Amino acid sequence: MKLRPEQLPQHLARELRPVYLISGDEPLLAMEAADAIRARARRDGFEERIQVFPERSVASWDDAVAATQTLSLFATRRILEIRMPNGKPGHGAATLQRVIAAAGSDLLLMIHTEKLDRAAQEAPWVSAVQERGAWIPIYAPDPAQLPGWLAERLRSVGLEASEGALRLLATANEGNLMAAAQEIEKLLLRYGAGATLDEASLAEALSDSARYSVFQLNEAIAARDAARALRMLAGLRAEGTEALVVLWWLARALHSQAGAARPAAMARYVARAVRADRMAKGRAIGEPWDEMALLTAELCGRRTLPLPRAGVARSA
User: Can you give the three-state secondary structure of 17-37, one letter per residue?
Assistant: First the structure.
């Protein structure tokens, strides 16, 4: 059997199989899948948990076999977890097959690996897992799927968010679901279940821990006070505020000048913002905070360095 992570709760509500394989490189989703299986196992009386790490020692495979044979002094039902990061048992392949076969009513086997390549997916032990239990491949949502994932995560704790707020949350925590989940917990504590978040309330929450407010930064830009605006920007950076959150507010300041700025100036502002965004996401070489400082100064009417004719890109 092969299960998607979202199918796991319904599966565990119906049954607990003797073997589970959790593979993937997304730590939050893998951790939550394992926690769900352990919780169901505890309800079924699996009180002892044993972990083995075959890559650390050849003897670990012997420990795994011993766990299938030795009765515990404290519990008759146990969870054996084999952590095999690369998904390749090597010389322990035959032993792993024996352990999979030994799992049953008193022994629950969980195997943890990173993402399996094609060769590993076709290994006999993976087939044995699917015959006796379930394989749960974990895949992180891609950038296009991330806002939907965040919306579902927010909904699960009683929060709703506008499309703009979801895009901002996705941008601020791009590729890091653990950070996004922690941020959602903070939003629940701040606003309470039943709240609906818009872009402004989310941006305020994301920057709330900063001593220098992004609101003050925008006020300084609106007043064309370059010295104060750059102090605010430096303070936000020192406080550890996400660069992409600050960039979102700078983009708002940029749009507020759309009617007053000359077309050439507006084109330069947009180019600065795009460069900073690419740098913050690791898609271009450079320091996003430096680019944002140049953008801030220009939004305040100051002359700065000319834009390069062509940026040097690197792969994401």
Answer: CCEEEEEECCHHHHHHHHHHH
> Would you state the structure tokens that stand for residue 246, as one six-digit string?
């600050």
Answer yes or no: is 315 within a domain: no
pLDDT, tens digit (0-9, with 9 covering 90-100), for 204-253: 787 665 555 677 788 889 899 999 899 889 988 887 788 888 888 888 88
Domain extent at residue 53: 5-138
Phi and psi at 265, nearest 5°, equal -65, -45
Looking from the CA of 180 toward its CB, the CA atoms found within 13 Å total: 28
| Segment (H or E) for 231 | helix 226-238
Given this model, what pLDDT does residue 125 score?
94
Phi and psi (nearest 5°) for 2?
Answer: -120, 130
The CATH number of residue 172's host domain is 1.10.8.60
Which two three-digit tokens encode residue 110?
Answer: 């969980």
Classify residue 284: in a domain, yes or no.
Answer: yes
Does residue 24 fall inside a structural domain? yes
Same domain, 30 and 116: yes
Classify strands 48-52 and 78-83 as parallel, antiparallel or unpaired. Answer: parallel
Sequence-distant contacts of 91-99: CB under 8 A, at least 24 apart: 91/58, 91/61, 92/54, 92/61, 93/123, 93/124, 93/125, 95/61, 95/64, 95/65, 96/61, 96/64, 96/125, 97/124, 97/125, 97/128, 98/65, 98/68, 99/64, 99/65, 99/68
Our count of domains for the chain comes to 3
